[in-house]
């Protein structure tokens, strides 16, 4: 059962369809396993539909529909979208694997590895990564230069604010300093969206900050 959830504003933006693809994916994965948040989004969807229905209907000018079609035809054909629109097992379909541990992980520090999937979202300016902590492993103490949105995909980790299990959702920023530790028998794998590089705060690891992107 999930214990950490997206805030109301994030759920409203998801319901309105205004989130970027990676942020929407994080929330969709959470919703697939959280009845509480799913019922809140259902309520927001219903509210949005009621608001639309209550708006006065203006007549559409003659030729408007044809003009829209002409504009669409004039636009260049977009590249194929890699991310599937079917929310079920979305990340597994995106990466074409059911075993996240089999991905070509790049070790960063000690127990921490990363697999950058930003290229799957070419229209996004934020960095999208999978992060892995080996079972029982510790990430270096760090804070954030921007925001980091994370959902736990496998295993669990603990930090100063509690235990984050599979499908838990968390947003951190420059006001948060933590040192996650993977708990349980499985490697902890999470999907994270970073608006800016993290900032190491340890006595020695901070020397590596100039090399972190």
UniProtKB/TrEMBL annotation:
This is ChrR family anti-sigma-E factor. CDD domains: cupin_ChrR. SUPFAM superfamilies: RmlC-like cupins (SSF51182). Gene3D superfamilies: Anti-sigma factor, zinc-finger domain, Jelly Rolls. It holds the Pfam family Cupin_7. Coiled coil: none annotated. It comes from Marinobacter xestospongiae. Residues 101-190 form the ChrR-like cupin domain.
């Amino acid at each position: 059962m999930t214990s950490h959830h997206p805030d109301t504003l994030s759920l409203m933006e998801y319901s309105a369809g205004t989130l970027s693809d990676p942020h929407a994916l994080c929330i969709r994965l959470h919703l697939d396993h959280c009845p509480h948040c799913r019922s809140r989004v259902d309520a927001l969807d219903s509210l949005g539909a009621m608001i639309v229905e209550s708006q006065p209907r203006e007549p559409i000018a003659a030729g408007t529909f044809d003009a829209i079609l002409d504009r669409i035809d004039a636009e260049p054909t977009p590249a194929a979208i890699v991310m599937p629109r079917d929310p079920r097992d979305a990340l597994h379909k995106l990466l074409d694997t059911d075993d996240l541990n089999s991905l070509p992980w790049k070790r960063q520090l000690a127990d921490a590895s990363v697999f950058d999937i930003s290229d799957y979202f070419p229209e996004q300016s934020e960095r999208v990564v999978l992060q892995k902590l080996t079972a029982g492993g510790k990430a270096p103490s760090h804070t954030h230069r921007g925001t980091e949105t994370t959902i736990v995909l496998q295993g669990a980790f603990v930090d100063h604010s509690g235990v984050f299990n599979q499908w838990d959702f968390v947003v951190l920023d420059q006001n948060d300093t933590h040192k996650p530790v993977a708990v349980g028998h499985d490697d902890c794998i999470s999907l994270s969206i970073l608006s800016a590089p993290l900032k190491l705060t340890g006595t020695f690891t901070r020397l590596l900050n100039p090399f972190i992107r």
